[in-house]
């Protein structure tokens, strides 16, 4: 019993604030205002998602993907409100990890922290790989062509080469380039040596900037965000003159399944607003500015995403958008080579800002976990001159840079979303805990309260009735599946309905606030759209994390040393 209770030992808000200010040499520079936070948020959100993965999402779902952006933004708003309440209650670095420590206890805090490490690391791998594609494209515009084997990962090139050998296979320009790179690559013992050198180098340079300091990072981010928003507005305004309404028909060519197939890509585009919360200790007035910054970021970015999706799918047919640089591609396709060149050059700088913010966030997660004794002490070491988590920043550079050198982007996009959904759900659930325990009274910002006592259950009944009435095709599909097939392909959907039913019962008993519940359900629903292979990898990642926790953090955490158990 004692061991079980100690797994869920919690930290009070006062204790977390005290720990954050009592660690020797841990003083981070407090210089960020609401404008800086909004800039960092936009830097993270308007990154590889809008400059790269938006093309794949549009290819799968057609123009209707613009509605998916709205739906995903709504889910993020519910989550952002929950993050904002926690940030105003616990204004320290650590993001969802710290919030879980308050609400659910140490074991859940570790799981969330470990998930956030995965989220930020693989997010930056995607951004670095996307940056590399735009960078090499920009260099070609100046007549500089890097050897193909230095810009393409081995797996992508091998797949393209195999496709080249297939009679009658249709290949894109990029696939032909990758296949040629595979043929020309140097070999050792029959193994083709290939790596994405630009992705590794940019990670190294950004890590150096983040190491030097938050002030320099802030200045660089602000400059790049201004340029980034300028590029996006240029695409929207200039592209509007080349929109052909017939390209929007059919609006959802592959139906709802095609639209939802872009969930990972679209959700990846929004990942980043939560990274604002990792800089809470460097914020001048986090209780006031954090909530404002998160909401401002989501509103601005959603409007930009919807408009740019409609412009892209209006300028060319959606079937042509399966490219790594869709913004430049649509202008080149319409004969506007100059515009395509401007966008390629600007995009390199714009994507760099997203890389900067993610690389800024991850070391601060590790730093906070180290403060609590769950990771080795060196991770919480603060550089005496630069006032940054120096060792954690260096490790982050290796963790991101090495995989970016050798792996493909598609794999990382889906994997990023899995860990993020998980963290978002626990943050929304944490707000319900704060409300029930009365801790919300300490919050300077609170999620607007809408009594869900009856609404959660009513909406559940309406949803079930809607499926029974209009979802007969879905019911027929489920009846054709065996038990093992249901477990493999529909387990998350089953969990979704069980959770909704449970929340309806608990909401009736405890007068749950509707908005955090809506955040839990929308994030959980979006999770059901991700592939089972991503979940398998995520589970493996969690198992590795639990091994580390039980072999090190469980006994060495500050709460364990103080003999504290669950509150």
TrEMBL record:
Answer whether the UniProt record assigns the keyword Manganese to this protein. Answer: no
Transmembrane in keyword set? yes
InterPro entries, sorted: AA/rel_permease1, CAT_C
Q: Which residues form a coiled coil?
A: none
Protein name, entry field: Amino acid permease
| One Pfam family linked to the record | AA_permease_C
**Keywords, alphabetical:** Membrane, Transmembrane, Transmembrane helix, Transport
Where's the Cationic amino acid transporter C-terminal domain?
A: 514-557
Give the source's domain of life in one word: Bacteria
The entry's localization annotation reads:
Membrane
What Gene3D superfamilies has UniProt attached to this entry? Answer: Amino acid/polyamine transporter I (1.20.1740.10)
- Species in which this protein is naturally found: Dyadobacter luticola
- Molecular function via GO: amino acid transmembrane transporter activity
Q: What is its main location?
A: membrane
